[in-house]
């Protein structure tokens, strides 16, 4: 029998107070020291103390230690189980949380609430509702935590939220602010702002509003582009003397970000500086989000970041996310990710999602695989849905749809984003059969599609000319799923009709849209006109485009190229002159390829690369072989007047287009049979498309080219687009 030293009750009480202080301050080091004393039998064992050590490790994010502490508890009670269930829930290990829940001899209401909340955080309505029914069958008296959890879990089903809202009012549970806040947030997320306003108003009449209610309503207004109302609510909070904290400030910043009100956001930034909130890490995240999305760059974001003396993990993640929104700044996003680790932070699921997005922009398979490996080795559970979703998108954008599908198939569960990512990946690669099959699978699994799902599905139809199928999906969006059609959906339909040569129908769709067409719609029509050579309609589309975005180079370049292809050189020269006079600059075309973790960039007729002689020799030999196989250079793509260059000169210029040079370098720098990926910042030219098909057949290589619009996977003389691009 273990003999304990003589310890008086005062010492035990002091030990308890120290342990509680460690939990409150998340002081893991001191807590472990106390646990060591406890193990050495200097303190009599008790379930109370064992539970609090489990709670300490849970609060500090040390799941393994929490598990060990729980299993060492000699006589675990319901609090012991609830603590570890909560730890599992925080790490998104809901299946383990539910397994442990099933082991509790007599679960209490807290047990049910914790598990319902875990399912709510993951948006899993079914299990949460089953637990809710079980709670009522057992006879527990429901509280605000139970109802707010099940309402949050039901957020995607507005009809169910309405039913639960009725239940809340009828049974008198609307006295709980947390329940009303959950209802308000659900209505807002699904686009029912008036219902959210009504809930907020009724809360005011009953005196049941708290700071969370005001913050939720401010966010709701921001999400629905009601920025003035959001700011008005903030002013009302201040006038009423309510406590304005960092969460309130962040909510107002979210409103400015949602409505893209940079000026108002900057004025609010000035107010925060005067009130001393500008150094707060949470508020700083909101400011960085505002500037990264509304200021067109990251300069101001750096200034905000440098003002914060103790940046936390969320702030670093926001910086990485900001950089990943700009393809040209994705390298800085990777640098931020490395700095995050150098500063002692462990990346969480959000960190991996943001940095994976940066890898997608760079189309860097090697860096993407390194991030994937780090995610597997890290403390976060590898099956975290959001990380897997980002990996699926990353592999798709890096041209490896096979690896994307492997990650997708290994995921223990899928949500709407998972299927959206895989559907979009197949759509970009021209594998429309799999894309549409996954959409049908999504419906069979009772996973509700959203507006992004239909953008991917319509894109798949557009890339393959499936006009009837596209029209069907466009119709059922509103009729079957109640999803409002947005500009992106109309753009996809215009692209679908235009690619199929139905230019009049595409023009009619623009004219009959329920809102004013934007540059996206006119750009889709302009691209279709270019494909089918309809110069007159292209002029109209380009003028409308320029009216909306006078300094965009795209309409000038496309119209000029169309005139040049049609031999209308004077009109082409006029467009270029207007472009120069207005100071609009064309983005220079370039292609790049990653070999041995190093990126090699090429421009048209490039002579700067150290292996350019070998590349030119390879292309000359390849041209001879291609001509033997019937290749005839399409000199229209040289876009040069006959009097300015002879046919041989035009052929030479075509031979040294950037994508051909990148492909040539990739072939001579890699082993036989190794697939290569080339990325181009503009659309691939028609002659290069024809040439690379032949090169893939001659060399027996799989060559993937990612241009500004889609992937072209060349294999054995064919392209995945089936020449429909």
UniProtKB/TrEMBL annotation:
> Which residues form the PPR repeats?
77-107, 108-142, 210-244, 312-347, 415-449, 450-480, 552-586
Protein name stated in the entry:
DYW domain-containing protein
Q: Which organism is this protein's natural source? A: Flemingia macrophylla
Q: Which protein family is named in the record?
A: Belongs to the PPR family. PCMP-H subfamily.
Q: Where is the DYW domain?
A: 630-725
Please indicate if the UniProt record lists Lipid biosynthesis as a keyword.
Answer: no
* PANTHER family to which the protein is assigned, alphabetical: PENTATRICOPEPTIDE REPEAT (PPR) SUPERFAMILY PROTEIN (PTHR47926:SF505), PENTATRICOPEPTIDE REPEAT-CONTAINING PROTEIN (PTHR47926)
Q: Which UniProt keywords apply?
A: Repeat
Alphabetical list of InterPro entries matching this protein = DYW_dom, E_motif, PPR_At4g14850-like_plant, PPR_rpt, TPR-like_helical_dom_sf
- Give coiled-coil spans as residue ranges: none
Keyword Repeat in annotation: yes
């Amino acid at each position: 029998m273990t003999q304990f030293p003589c310890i008086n009750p005062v010492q035990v009480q002091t030990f308890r107070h120290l342990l509680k202080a460690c939990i409150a301050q998340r002081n893991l080091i001191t807590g472990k020291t106390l646990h060591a004393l406890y193990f050495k039998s200097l303190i009599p064992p008790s379930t109370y103390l064992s539970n609090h050590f489990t709670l300490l490790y849970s609060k500090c994010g040390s799941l393994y230690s929490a598990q060990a502490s729980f299993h060492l508890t000699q006589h675990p009670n319901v609090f012991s189980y609830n603590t570890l269930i909560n730890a599992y829930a925080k790490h998104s290990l809901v299946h383990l949380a539910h397994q442990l829940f099933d082991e509790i001899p007599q679960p209490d209401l807290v047990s049910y609430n914790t598990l319902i909340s875990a399912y709510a955080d993951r948006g899993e309505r079914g299990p949460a509702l089953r637990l809710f029914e079980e709670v009522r069958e057992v006879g527990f008296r429901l509280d605000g935590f139970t109802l707010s959890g099940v309402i949050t879990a039901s957020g995607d089903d507005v009809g169910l939220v309405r039913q639960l809202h009725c239940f809340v009012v009828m049974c008198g549970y609307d006295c709980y602010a947390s329940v009303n806040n959950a209802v308000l947030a659900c209505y807002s997320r699904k686009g029912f702002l008036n219902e959210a306003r009504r809930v907020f108003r009724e809360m005011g009449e009953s005196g049941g509003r708290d700071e969370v209610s005001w913050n939720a309503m401010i966010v709701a207004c921001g999400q629905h582009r009601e920025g003035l109302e959001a700011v008005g609510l903030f002013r009302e909070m201040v006038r009423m003397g309510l406590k304005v904290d960092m969460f309130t400030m962040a909510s107002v910043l979210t409103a400015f970000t949602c409505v893209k009100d940079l000026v108002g956001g900057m004025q609010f930034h000035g107010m925060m500086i005067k009130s001393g909130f500008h150094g707060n890490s949470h508020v700083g995240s909101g400011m960085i989000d505002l500037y990264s999305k509304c200021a067109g760059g990251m300069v101001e974001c750096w200034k905000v970041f440098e003002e914060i003396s103790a940046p936390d993990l969320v702030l670093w993640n926001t910086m990485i996310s900001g950089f990943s929104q700009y393809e040209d700044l994705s390298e800085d996003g990777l640098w931020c990710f490395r700095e995050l680790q150098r500063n002692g932070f462990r990346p969480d699921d959000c960190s991996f999602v943001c940095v994976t997005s940066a890898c997608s922009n760079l189309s860097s398979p090697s860096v993407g695989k390194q991030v994937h490996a780090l995610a597997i080795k890290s403390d976060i559970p590898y099956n975290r849905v959001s990380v897997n979703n980002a990996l699926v998108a990353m592999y798709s954008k890096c041209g490896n749809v096979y690896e994307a599908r492997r990650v997708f198939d290994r995921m223990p569960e899928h949500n709407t984003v998972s299927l959206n990512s895989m559907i979009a990946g197949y759509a970009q690669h021209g594998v429309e059969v799999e894309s549409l099959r996954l959409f049908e699978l999504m419906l069979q699994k009772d996973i509700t599609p959203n507006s992004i799902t239909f953008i991917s599905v319509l894109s798949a139809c557009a890339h393959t000319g499936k006009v009837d199928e596209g029209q069907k999906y466009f119709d059922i969006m509103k009729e079957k799923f109640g999803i409002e059609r947005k500009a992106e959906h109309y753009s996809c339909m215009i692209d679908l009709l235009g690619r199929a040569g139905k230019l009049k129908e595409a023009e009619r769709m623009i004219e009959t849209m329920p809102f004013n067409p934007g540059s996206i719609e006119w750009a889709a029509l302009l691209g279709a006109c270019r494909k089918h050579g309809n110069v007159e309609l292209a002029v109209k589309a380009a003028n409308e485009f320029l009216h909306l975005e006078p300094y965009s180079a795209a309409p000038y370049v496309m119209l000029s190229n169309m005139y040049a292809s049609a031999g209308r050189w004077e009109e082409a020269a006029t467009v270029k002159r207007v472009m120069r006079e207005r100071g609009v600059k064309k983005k220079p075309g370039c292609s790049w390829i990653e070999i041995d973790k190093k990126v090699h960039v090429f421009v048209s007729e490039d002579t700067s690369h150290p292996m350019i002689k070998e590349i030119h020799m390879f292309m000359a030999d390849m041209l001879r072989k291609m001509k033997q196989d019937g290749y005839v250079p399409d000199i229209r793509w040289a876009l040069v007047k006959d009097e300015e260059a002879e046919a041989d000169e035009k052929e030479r210029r075509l031979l040294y287009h950037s994508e051909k040079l990148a492909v040539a370098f990739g072939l001579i720098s890699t082993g036989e049979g190794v697939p290569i990926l080339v990325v181009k910042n503009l659309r691939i030219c028609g002659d290069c498309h024809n040439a690379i098909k032949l090169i893939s057949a001659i060399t027996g290589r799989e060559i993937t080219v990612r241009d500004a619009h889609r992937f072209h996977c060349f294999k054995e003389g064919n392209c995945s687009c089936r020449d429909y691009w």
